[in-house]
Amino acid sequence: HVQLVESGGGSVQAGGSLRLSCTASGYTRSNYCMGWFRQAPGKEREGLVAMGTDGITNYADSVKGRFTISRDGGKTFALQMNDLKPEDSGVYYCVAGLIDLLRGVIPRAAAFNYWGQGTQVTVS
Questions:
Q1: E strand residue ranges, 8-117
Q2: Hey, what's the torsion of the CAs at 107, 110, 8, 32, to 10 degrees?
Q3: C-alpha dihedral over 81, 12, 93, 5, to 10 degrees?
Q4: SS3 110
Q5: What does the alpha-carbon distance between residue 36 and residue 113 come to, in Å, rounded to a whole number?
Q6: Paired sense of beta strands 3-7 and 114-115, if any
Q7: What's the whole-number average pLDDT of the chain?
Q8: What are the residues facing 73 on neighbouring strands?
Q9: pLDDT of residue 54
Q10: In the chain, where does DSSP find H-type helix?
Q11: Percent of the residues in the chain that have a pLDDT greater than 70, as a whole number
Q12: Distances from the Cα of 88 to the Cαs of 80, 101, 103, in angstroms?
């Protein structure tokens, strides 16, 4: 059973940076598409970035140029968030799924089989 655990959320002033980490466990296959979603109060979950296993990485326009996803080795993934804005506030979820990622597309939330518990990010 795949488990995802996020860490690194918190509060920061506008213009600041945060780094979120996601540690995955419980799977042996290496072809999972990984990504990050965010949900602000009263809004639907928004896909921010998806990273496939063949070098494709897709970012939402709202975070392109400010957020960067990376693999920190093994089964740990990170989301570096720079130049944060108040509208970036919300609960951030690490996600994984057996998805053939197409260039330029962030799969919808339902396509990801596994979700972390979420970590709060507040930008003021």
A1: 10-12, 18-25, 33-39, 46-51, 57-59, 67-71, 76-81, 90-97, 114-115
A2: -60
A3: 100
A4: helix
A5: 13
A6: unpaired
A7: 92
A8: none
A9: 81
A10: none
A11: 95
A12: 13, 24, 24
- 75 contacts 67 by C-beta, under 8 angstroms: no
Lowest mean pLDDT among 18-27, 48-57, 69-78: 69-78
From 40, 48, 32, 58, select the one nearest 112 (Cα to Cα): 32
Alpha-carbon distance of 108 to 43, in angstroms, equals 15
Q: Cα separation of 103 and 96, whole Å?
A: 17
Nearest to 51 by CA among 28, 22, 25: 22
Residue type, 5: V
pLDDT in tens, 21-55: 999 988 766 678 999 999 998 999 999 999 998 88
Give the pLDDT confidence score for residue 59 in this predicted structure.
Answer: 97
Higher pLDDT among residues 82 and 75, named by residue: 82
